[in-house]
Amino acid sequence: MIGYIIRRLLWFVPVVLVILTLLFLLLQVVPGDPIRAAFGGENPLDEQQIQALRAQFGLDRPFYIRYFVWLWDVIHLDLGISIYSGSTVKKQLATRIPVTVGLVALALFITLILSIPFGTLAGYYHDKWPDWVLRTISILFISLPHFWLAAIGIMLLMTFSGWSLSIEYVTMFTHPLKALKQLALPAFIMALRPISIATRMIRSSLIEVLEEDYIRTARAKGVREESLTRRHALPNSIIPVVTVYGLEGIVLIGASVIMERIFGIPGIGSLVVEAANNRDIYVLQGSILVLLSYALFLNLAIDLLYGWLDPRIRYER
Amino acid sequence: MTNLETEQESKNRLRLREVWAFSLREPLGVLGALLLLALVIMAIGAPVWTDKDPVTTSISQAFKPPLSQFWFGTDFLGRDIWSRFVYGSRISLIVAMSGVALASVAGGLLGIFSGLVGGKTDSYIQRFMDSLLAMPAIVLAIIIMAVLGTSLVNVIIAIAIVSFPRVNRITRSTAVSLRESLFIESAVIAGASKWRITIRHIAMNCVAPWLVYCSALLGTAFIAEASLSFLGMGVPPPTPSWGRDLSDNLTRFEFAPWPCIFPGLGISMAVFSANFLGDALRNILDPRLKRI
Asked: Could you tell me which of B227, B84, B222, B217 has the C-alpha nearest to residue B145?
């Protein structure tokens, strides 16, 4: 088990290296100078100033040297300085990460508390009307794009309840209640798709488990249908869905990029978009490093949880 | 000769009956196929369906509500939303379909190759795919767009790169499980050549799961294209694109919702059609899921 975890953790290194190296190389190959992108706007700098800035950020050195310098710094937990804003990447990330963590965690929580009852309901009444209603609604929400739902959600709330978009966002860690209120709508909209997917998975998994022999035995022994579903079948049928929850935890990061843009939430998703637009290499690399580590650790956690829930699974290889 | 003809005839009739049976069993799938067909017709015949130019602006005509002299109204620059809707479908379809087509052919072939070769080559290819898969799809697409710059071809490339490892994984796992199966072993014993086994027995048997997966990917590709152009990283303006039209008009949603509603409907329609079709194909082609 420990050996398995260590081997998995060691695999993270090449995965992260491959992505970050590719990104770095690609950003060198394509035309477009980050200094000019940052300062070429209304009052363009003259050639001398640009050269001075290039030297300051080390951009005058060949890219492979820059790459190794950057890598060396990253190993020492120094992510560099933003070319665009001048502040350190670490500082930017430190203010952005808690916001996104709160948003994604809330969305995942909403997914969990809604999809399990919905999925159970649909599986229990399969091919009857509650199942049809839930399946139709879920295929609807799988297909509707987040940003459109968000637009409609904002409009409805604005017209009917006088609710308005927040200008300044607080984090879950400093002002939990206020953050909860601010993030409820974006988190709920983000959660609609994972809820729908998980509901469908739990439904089909529950239907499958309800056909198993041990359920028939329990039924023969006189267990009531209700507790049969809830206590005997449901726990086993949720196990395969754990993977789905984990994967949605990664997909939700993608959804948060869009939600943060619409609601003006200053999270890591909007940082990625800003950095990409500004060709701010170090900020982009730093945020990608964070997102990638999050996804990799989440994947590992799911696999471990899966093995804990279903002891038949062995970690080999 | 007549015998042969009747055989052919009954075969045709059988096929017709199959189509009919399919539409009875999967009405939503047929609806999806029809919707997708309607979108394709709309995109191809765009100049026929609208006589107004989608990019001409006229401020005096701004914010005309729908069902006036403009079917769908006009946006903040006075552009006709109906013609932007019609021309926008072109971008959506071209990007999603060519992106998925590129990814499914390249990813599918590499998956079969990787699964059959096995060993170190397979391991390296799969680790590389894992690296790509570790990123949330939209983030990867944003980065690719940031690197390549915004243009129609680059959006297609971004969507193809994002979809590529996903298709690759499906055909690889199918090929691996087929490689170990008994009927391949008996084909080897029967003396079938390597190529014959690869093409006739393995590749052909990968087609069903591959097709199911690609049709599902089409839905996500529609969303990805719309998301990218919503974030201002898709096809550059003034080319009409549903995602960008939506984001351009979002700030004026309160007093003029129609410029947002129609592009949103277009995106949803496209995704719906792909998802319905994909679901139906899965029910028909994937025997493991058939009974559910």
From this structure: B227
